[in-house]
């Protein structure tokens, strides 16, 4: 039988975890959120309070982790809170082209990274226009014309919902750190092993055990020019 004290948490437990969540380092916050998730309604209350207090500032991956606990909870109060305070999700879904990124946010909040990767390519093709949407892949010249606002939205969705491990900006940072050496980059993010390209989809890692920068794939199967255009985009300057 489950100990009711573990389910509800003592007042001291809750107060201690609340203080830790507010004032702790990123690593401590990361460890605190799952502990609160195990404390039932009392833990959810702390997470809701935490997100509400931070709602005026841009979401970080810590906010994303707290949001995911609430999003994946069956508790009616959690669902009501998200519907009231974050109806579109934790990341504002801004677009200069009127594109709806809600499905991408939902998949990433549910940690369905493989489906989210497919939707990311679809949304980027939508950005490029009807022809790209029909062919289902991108020319590097189309990427050059992407609005910065939309690229930031896609990137922030991946960052916030992956503990900061995934996203175009993460990949670009790794690539720059390797002196823009593509071969070293492919190996570092596990898109290549020796001379062998990682095979889609089964050889990719679709969870947070993947190396930093592993996702999204950004049209990886079509060579270097698309991702080079992404990394050269003025959005990151």
Automatic annotation (TrEMBL):
Gene3D superfamilies in the cross-refs: 1.25.40.620, Gun4-like (1.10.10.1770)
Instruction: Name the InterPro entries on file.
Output: ARM-type_fold, GUN4-like, GUN4-like_sf, GUN4_N
Q: Which Pfam families match?
A: GUN4, GUN4_N
Every GUN4 N-terminal ARM-like repeat domain range:
5-87
Write down the CDD domains for this protein, in alphabetical order.
GUN4
**Molecular function terms, GO-annotated:** tetrapyrrole binding
Q: Which residues form the GUN4-like domain?
A: 95-234
GO CC annotation: outer membrane-bounded periplasmic space
Instruction: Output the SUPFAM superfamilies linked to this UniProt entry.
Output: ARM repeat, GUN4-like
Record-stated family: Belongs to the CpcE/RpcE/PecE family.
Protein name (record): GUN4 domain-containing protein
Q: Which organism is it from?
A: Tolypothrix tenuis PCC 7101
């Amino acid at each position: 039988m489950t100990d009711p004290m573990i389910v509800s948490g003592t007042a001291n437990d809750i107060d201690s975890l609340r203080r830790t969540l507010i004032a702790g380092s990123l690593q401590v916050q990361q460890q605190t959120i799952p502990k609160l998730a195990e404390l039932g309604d009392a833990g959810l209350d702390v997470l809701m309070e935490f997100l509400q207090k931070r709602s005026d500032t841009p979401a970080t991956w810590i906010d994303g982790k707290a949001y995911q606990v609430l999003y994946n909870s069956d508790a009616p109060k959690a669902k009501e809170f998200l519907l009231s305070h974050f109806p579109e999700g934790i990341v504002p879904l801004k677009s200069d082209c009127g594109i709806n990124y809600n499905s991408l946010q939902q998949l990433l909040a549910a940690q369905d990274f493989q489906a989210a990767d497919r939707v990311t390519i679809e949304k980027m093709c939508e950005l490029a226009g009807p022809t790209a949407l029909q062919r289902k892949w991108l020319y590097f010249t189309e990427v050059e014309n992407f609005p910065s606002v939309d690229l930031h939205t896609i990137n922030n969705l991946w960052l916030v919902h992956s503990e900061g491990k995934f996203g175009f900006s993460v990949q670009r940072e790794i690539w720059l750190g390797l002196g823009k050496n593509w071969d070293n980059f492919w190996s570092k993010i596990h898109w290549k092993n020796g001379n062998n390209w990682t095979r889609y989809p089964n050889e990719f890692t679709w969870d947070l055990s993947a190396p930093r920068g592993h996702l999204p794939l950004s049209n990886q199967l079509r060579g270097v020019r698309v991702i080079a255009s992404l990394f050269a985009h003025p959005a990151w300057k």
